[in-house]
Amino acid sequence: MAAKPKRSYQSAVRERQAAETRQRIAAAARRLLAAKGYAAMTIDAVAREAEVAAQTVYAVFGSKIGILNEILDEARFDETYQELVRQARSAPDPRARLRYAARIARQIFDSERPLLDLLRGAGVLAPELSRVEQERESMRYERQGPLIEYLAKKKYLRPGLKPARAREILWALTSRDLYRMLVRERGWPSQEFEDWLGRTLVEALMG
Predict the structure, then answer these.
(1) What's phi and psi for 3, nearest 5 deg?
(2) Which residue in 21, 145, 148, 176 has the most C-beta neighbors within 10 A?
């Protein structure tokens, strides 16, 4: 029984060291990406830049795609995102929750714009970036499930609108493609996009 605190302490130290190693590898990969391009961001090059063994990079991330996912996640899901999620979950008004969904989508897409531009300029192959985006779209669909479940349980959904269809509408309207078309291609200010999307979600899902 007396050894328990020691084991807990050692476990905490190992977890902290693992997190620091992960951050150091991701930071090294970002530097290589910005300075030399995606082709030069090999596992061996990342390991040298991070001053760790190549096997450590493989153990932590599994592949180059794994590193790319980490870099994108750091850009998208920062402290601002986490705080918005907390506020959305505590909002008592269902319309406010939908407007938070619009704000969160805008926050993610605004945050990732510089990095996506860098990735495309750094020569990331379209199939590789597409694979990463497909994984993220599946994750986004899963994360939106609780909001629709909340609206359905409280009977806030528009009459006749099934939860499955409501979830698909939410997923489609908060998509990166819609942001790209309106903000990047048509020049909408991000705040105008967020305001419009919030209103549109309320109208489409609640009536």
Answers:
(1) -80, -10
(2) 148
